[in-house]
């Protein structure tokens, strides 16, 4: 798999210090409970079509993970960076088939250390189902109690959240799952006789994405939309299937292609399809800030996204960081305090919170936030850690000696300089 397919969406955040850090769905073979027949979205459908239905069933917004009854943190090697989400994710992958419960715990901690990542959420969904094979069999057979069980709904919500963060998470993180279906060449043959098979068009799109052929990904997703149009025109009773997830995926593919302008247009079409589809609003906000320097649009879109889904702590961190860059420090504090309450292990929120407090001359609060950041930050953020430590020393000396307060101007580089992810986590 080409490296650009792994990280292209993450690059959208590189123009800012601490946000936005979007990681963008899930094409795959679909296990559909109680139904092995072909449908409008096809046998080889991407779960974004399923995700739209699931979102309606779960009544958005989708609750984020709770810290209640959280599993014990798995042990890493003595020299490992215990603040690095990627190491817990790699541990989960290693344990997935032999010890799925321990794998689930590892994925849980990966997702808490960086709640914006899609892959740990997807793999936690997968590992949790592996811990309960009996219920899974009932669920797939269409058993009513299994379908409505709390376990099924809460576990499937993890996959939905992963899909909303990255519509290609399965293609990037689990290519083996795609190999259950036909090859690209075989699928191309099928489409010559079944041009209205929406699922097969999307299946092809994700395979091209996995190969780094993003132009072909976009072309096949557009063909999937065209197939939907044809199906609806032929139907005796007109039933409209919303296209927001298709447009969202097209936008993600354009990001991977490096075309932010076309990506934004696709995300805007997604919102036009469904004004409540908050993942597209997050994407618009990220592009508005990092590519167009349009802070006001970014703030407006993040604000709308939070109104639609107030339960995601990482989203409040993104919004708070945007307010921080706009120098709206008190509003930033409100969002970042809430973000740190909802995602207490996410280092970025504390760094931003410390900067916001610093500009408001709230020295003790700023010190506390900076220290928490230093305690939680992964080693790859060494430049930022060093700057925070220097600021801690300045503020501590100032408070102890009563010398006039040192300027917070130096912290601005933290809020505008490098990307939060200076490089990908070690593998």
Overall description:
- By secondary structure, this protein is mainly α.
- It folds into two domains: 3-65 and 115-304, Serine Threonine Protein Phosphatase 5, Tetratricopeptide repeat; 317-416, Tetratricopeptide repeat domain (Serine Threonine Protein Phosphatase 5, Tetratricopeptide repeat, Alpha Horseshoe).
- The protein contains 23 helices and no strands.
- It has helices spanning 3-7, 47-58, 85-95, 100-113, 119-130, 133-140, 144-148, 150-165, 169-173, 175-178, 184-193, 198-210, 214-234, 244-257, 260-273, 278-290, 295-308, 313-325, 329-342, 347-359, 363-376, 382-401, 412-416.
- Helix 14 runs antiparallel to helix 15 (260-273), helix 18 (313-325) packs antiparallel against helix 19 (329-342) and helix 19 runs antiparallel to helix 20.
Distance separating the two termini: 15 Å
Quaternary form: single chain
Enumerate how many helices there are, as a single number. Answer: 23
**What top-tier CATH class of the largest domain fits best?**
Mainly Alpha
Low-confidence runs of at least 5 consecutive residues: 1-17, 19-60, 415-427
Overall mean confidence score, pLDDT: 81
> What helical percentage do the residues reach?
55-70%
Blueprint of the fold:
Layout lengths: L2 H5 L39 H12 L26 H11 L4 H14 L5 H12 L2 H8 L3 H5 L1 H16 L3 H5 L1 H4 L5 H10 L4 H13 L3 H21 L9 H14 L2 H14 L4 H13 L4 H14 L4 H13 L3 H14 L4 H13 L3 H14 L5 H20 L10 H5 L11
């Amino acid at each position: 798999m080409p490296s650009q397919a792994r990280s292209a969406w993450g690059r959208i955040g590189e123009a800012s210090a601490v946000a936005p850090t979007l990681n963008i769905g899930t094409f795959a073979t679909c296990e559909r409970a109680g139904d092995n027949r072909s449908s409008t979205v096809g046998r080889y459908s991407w779960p974004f079509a399923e995700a739209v239905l699931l979102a309606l069933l779960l009544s958005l917004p989708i609750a984020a993970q709770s810290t209640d009854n959280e599993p014990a943190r798995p042990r890493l090697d003595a020299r490992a960076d215990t603040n690095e989400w990627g190491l817990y994710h790699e541990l989960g992958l290693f344990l997935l088939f032999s010890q799925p419960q321990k794998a689930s715990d590892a994925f849980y901690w990966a997702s808490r250390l960086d709640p914006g990542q899609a892959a740990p959420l997807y793999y936690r969904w997968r590992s949790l189902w592996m811990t309960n094979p009996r219920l899974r069999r009932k669920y797939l057979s269409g058993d009513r109690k299994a379908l409505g069980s709390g376990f099924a709904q809460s576990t499937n919500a993890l996959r939905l959240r992963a899909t909303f963060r990255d519509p290609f998470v399965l293609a990037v993180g689990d290519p083996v799952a795609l190999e259950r279906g036909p090859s690209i060449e075989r699928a191309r043959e099928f489409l010559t006789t079944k041009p209205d098979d929406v699922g097969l068009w999307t299946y092809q799109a994700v395979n091209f994405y996995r190969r780094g052929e993003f132009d072909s990904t976009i072309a096949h997703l557009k063909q999937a939309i065209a197939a939907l149009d044809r199906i609806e025109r032929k139907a005796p009773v007109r039933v409209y299937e919303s296209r927001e997830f298709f447009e969202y995926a097209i936008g993600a593919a354009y990001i991977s292609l490096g075309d932010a302008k076309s990506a934004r247009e696709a995300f805007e079409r997604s919102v036009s399809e469904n004004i409540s589809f908050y993942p597209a609003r997050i994407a618009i906000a990220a592009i508005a800030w990092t590519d167009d320097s349009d802070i006001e649009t970014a703030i407006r879109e993040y604000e709308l996204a939070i109104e639609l889904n107030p339960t995601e702590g990482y989203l409040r961190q993104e919004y708070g960081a945007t307010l921080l860059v706009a120098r709206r420090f008190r509003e930033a504090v409100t969002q970042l305090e809430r973000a740190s309450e909802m995602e207490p292990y996410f280092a970025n929120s504390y760094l931003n919170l410390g900067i916001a407090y610093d500009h408001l001359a709230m020295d003790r609060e700023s010190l506390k936030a900076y220290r928490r950041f230093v305690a939680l930050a992964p080693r790859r953020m060494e430049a930022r850690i060093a700057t925070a430590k220097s600021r801690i020393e300045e503020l501590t000396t100032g408070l102890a000696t009563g010398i006039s307060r040192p300027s917070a101007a130096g912290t601005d580089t933290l809020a505008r300089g490098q990307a939060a992810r200076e490089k990908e986590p070690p593998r």
